[in-house]
Specification:
By secondary structure, the chain is of the alpha+beta class. The protein has 5 helices and 7 strands. It has a 7-stranded mixed sheet with strand order 1-2-3-4-5-7-6. Strand 6 and strand 7 form a beta hairpin.
C-alpha cells in the first residue's frame, strides 16, 4: 500500500468510498457540497489517498493515480488558534481494506505532513449510541490513536449522534508504535 497526496483523478475514488458509508453518514455521492469539499481539499494539497501497489507502474509519487482507493482522508488546520487545531474532516477506508492498517497509515502520513507540536487534532465521529460506532470501529480506532472523547456535537445529516474526539499532539504520534487509525466513514 502507498499513501500519497490526492489528485483530481482520484475524485471518482472518493465518491466510491463515500458510497460505502452513506448508510452511516447520510447522502454524499450526489451532494454538490461534498463534491466541492473533496475537490477543494485536493486543490489545497490537504487530501490523502491510500492505494494498492500496481505491479505495472513504478513507485513514483504519482503511481497509483486513478486506481481504486483503499482509503481517503481530508485534513484541515485552524491556524487562528494558539496552538493550532488540526481537523480530520473525513476519513474512510474501503470495506475490503478495513482492519488492514490503511486508516493508521493515512493518519500517520497526515500527522507527519501537517502537524507540528504543540497542536491539537480533532475529529468528529459517531456517538456511543450510533450503530456505526461499533460496526465501523471508529471510536475504538481513535482511542487507540490516543484521542479522547470530548463534548457531544450536533447530530449528523442522517440524524445520528456525534462526538468530538481530541488529541493533544505533544509527542509526535507518527513516532509512537501504538498509533492506529480510523477505519470508518467521514469524520
Amino acid at each position: 500500500m502507498m499513501v500519497r497526496l490526492a489528485e483530481e483523478r482520484d475524485f471518482p475514488g472518493f465518491l466510491g468510498l463515500a458510497g460505502q458509508v452513506e448508510h452511516w453518514f447520510g447522502p454524499m455521492v450526489e451532494e454538490a457540497g461534498f463534491h466541492d469539499a473533496v475537490r477543494e481539499h485536493i486543490r489545497r494539497g490537504a487530501a490523502l489517498v491510500a492505494v494498492a501497489p500496481d505491479p505495472d507502474t513504478d513507485a513514483s509519487p504519482g503511481a497509483g493515480a486513478g486506481a481504486e482507493l483503499l482509503g481517503g482522508l481530508l485534513f484541515g488546520t485552524d491556524t487562528e488558534t494558539d496552538p493550532p487545531v488540526h481537523h480530520v474532516h473525513w476519513l474512510v477506508v474501503s470495506r475490503q481494506a478495513r482492519a488492514g492498517g490503511v486508516g493508521r497509515a493515512l493518519m500517520r502520513d497526515a500527522m507527519r505532513r501537517w502537524v507540528r507540536e504543540p497542536a491539537d487534532v480533532e475529529v468528529v465521529t459517531f456517538g456511543a449510541d450510533h450503530p456505526g460506532a461499533t460496526e465501523s470501529g471508529a471510536r475504538v480506532f481513535y482511542e487507540r490513536l490516543g484521542f479522547t472523547p470530548a463534548e457531544t456535537v450536533a447530530p449528523g445529516p442522517e440524524g445520528g449522534s456525534r462526538q468530538l474526539f481530541r488529541l493533544a499532539a505533544r509527542v509526535r504520534p507518527a513516532h509512537r508504535e501504538h498509533v492506529t487509525t480510523y477505519t470508518g466513514g467521514p469524520a
